Amino acid sequence: MDLQQMRYVLAVAEHGSFTRAAQRCFVVQSALSHQIAVLERELGLRLFARSSRRVELTAAGQAFLPAARQALEAADRAAAQAAAAAGEVRGTVRIGIIPTVTAVDLPVLLRRFHEAHPQVAVSLRVARSDETVADIRAGRLDVGILGLPAGQTPVGVSSRMLAQDRHVAVIASGHRLAGRKRVRLAELAEEPFADFPADSPGRAQTDLAFAEAGLVREVAYESTTADLIVGLVRQGLAVALLPSALRREFSGLHILAVTGGPTRTEHLAWDGFNTSPAAAALLELLEA
C-alpha cells in the first residue's frame, strides 16, 4: 500500500467516477484503475462497487476512507514541516471563499503567493460562509473568506475582520425609482427581489434588515451567484440589495443608497490550533 493509491481511492470516492478521478489526478484512467485494483487485492477487499453507470464505496471502502485521509494529511504535513525547517514552504493550502469577495483582490493575491511560494499547491473552493467555517473546523479547508451580517463573527475558528460594506439597491435603468439617489427600505418592500437562497449567509444580512424594520418582502428569484442576480435585475424582473463594493458589476444599472439597509462584514478565518506552514504563509501575506 502506498500514498498514491490512497490518493486515487479518495479521488474516486469524491468524484464518484474513475474517469473524473483520473482527470483530477492527471493520470490515465487505466493506470488509476490498475492501482486501485492492486490495492484491493492486497487488502483482500473490494473498496468500490462498480457498474457501467455507477461507482459507490462498499462498506469496506467507507471504513477505509477516514484513516486513508488522515494518513495523507499526515504525510503532507510531515513533508511541509520538513521543508519549512529547511526554509522552504511546500504543501497545499486549501481556501474557501464566498462568491462575492470584495475585501481582497483574490487573483492578485494568489499570483503574489505563487511567486513567493511556487512549491505550494493552491486549492480554491467557492461555498457558503457556514459551509466554509464547518470545513475549516473539520480540517477540510485551511483558510476562508466569509461574508456575515454586521456584528456576527465566525464561531469555532480563528478570524479577523477584513472589511465592512453597506448594501446598495440595484435596479434597472427604467425602474420607477431610477431618478432617485436614496431610497428607504420600506419603499423596496413591495418590489420582487432577486437574492441568494433562503437561510444562506449571503442573504442573512438582508433578511435581518427587513425583519428589524418589521417589513416583509417577496424573493421571486434565488441564485447562488451575484452574476445571475444582476442579470435578472438588468432585465427588469427584480430589484436586489448587494454590497456596494460590487459596483463594477452594475454597469448599465441604477444604484441607490438605502436608508436602514443591510451591512455586511467580510472575515478572514483559519484553523489557529494547528496551522500548516503553507496556510501560515498565506495568512502572513494577507497581513502585509
Q: List unreliable stretches of 5+ residues.
A: none
Mean model confidence by pLDDT: 91
Q: How large is the radius of gyration?
A: 23 Å
What is the share of helical residues? 40-55%
Order of helices and strands: HHHEEHEHEHEEEHEHEHEEEH
Number of separate domains: 3
Query: What can be said about the biggest beta sheet?
Result: 8 strands, mixed
CATH class of the largest domain: Alpha Beta
**CATH architecture field of the largest domain:** 3-Layer(aba) Sandwich
CATH topology of the largest domain: D-Maltodextrin-Binding Protein, domain 2
Structural shape: elongated
End-to-end C-alpha gap: 43 Å
Number of helices: 10
- Give the DSSP E fraction (strand runs of 2 or more residues): 15-25%
Number of strands: 12
Structural class, please? alpha/beta
Pfam families: HTH_1, LysR_substrate
Protein name: DNA-binding transcriptional LysR family regulator
Organism: Nesterenkonia xinjiangensis
GO molecular function, one term: DNA-binding transcription factor activity
